[in-house]
Amino acid sequence: MNWVEAGPGRLIAVTIAVLAAAVSIGAIAALTGHDDTAHPGDIAVTIRDFAFHPPALEMPAGEVGLIAHNADAALHDFTIDDIVSLDVPGTRIRRVSFTLPPGAYTYWCTLHPTMTGRLDAT
Length: 122
Prior knowledge:
Layout: H1 3-6, H2 8-32, E1 43-48, E2 51-53, E3 56-59, E4 62-70, E5 76-80, E6 84-88, E7 93-100, E8 103-109, E9 112-121
Parallel strand pairs: 1-4, 3-9
Antiparallel strand pairs: 1-2, 4-7, 5-6, 8-9
């Protein structure tokens, strides 16, 4: 029997089962994932209550290490357009390093665009 003979009800049931399995696997991966550890000299950002803390950062230009702790349950990211984008799953800690030219930048969460901060690199 092929999918056409099985009818649309069977196809819908299989589709729902596959989607449920994918969601379950994603949830388990998020809950059992690892946290990154900070390196000496890293700049720290905490994401809490759908906001970045602190809302403004200062750092020297050049090679930058950033550690982001997401205290929210929701997935967030730390993005500086054309420079860095770091996904930070809910209740997780992630680290990234990147090169930052001197200047003033806005960092933001692409998933929640009202979440923004300012970064000054000297």
